[in-house]
Amino acid sequence: MNDSGLVGHCLELLSPLGRTSSRRMFGGRALYIDDLCMALIFGDALYLKVNDDSRATFERAGCRPFIYETRDGDHQSLNYYTAPDEAMESPAEMIPWARRALAAAVAARAKAPRKKAAAAKEPAKKSPAKKVGARKVAEPKAPARKTVASKAAAGRPVAKKTARP
To answer: Which of 19, 28, 47, 146 could make a disulfide contact with 80, Cβ separation 3.0–4.6 Å?
Structure first.
């Protein structure tokens, strides 16, 4: 199955849980349900989000963790595990696994510090007043009138008004 076919298939499997979408992410795809990232696609595998409550269930089912190699050659893992093979066959088989992943994503969002919400609760800080220096303020000059005499003195041709019949 090609990449776009796999993404479409996975979005279809997850669709019973809400509005699905995907975005590119680090050479793979992030899958969202109602704007909450809960799965990744890298290579030809779907990885579902896990937490401490669901990790053991994924491990018992024989799912593999998402592991990547850093620039230093170290191996790092994220809180994502492959979906079981049987869950990849039908939405009915995927729903319990997707619910676990969605619950892990909701819990992770609840733990994450909220920058916008925290800023909204704090009173607005006033910026310190700027000091105005004792500079002399120039008086605005009145615009100069252009007259026919000034144009002629500048050596420019003067347009003559002609009466229209």
So the answer is: 47
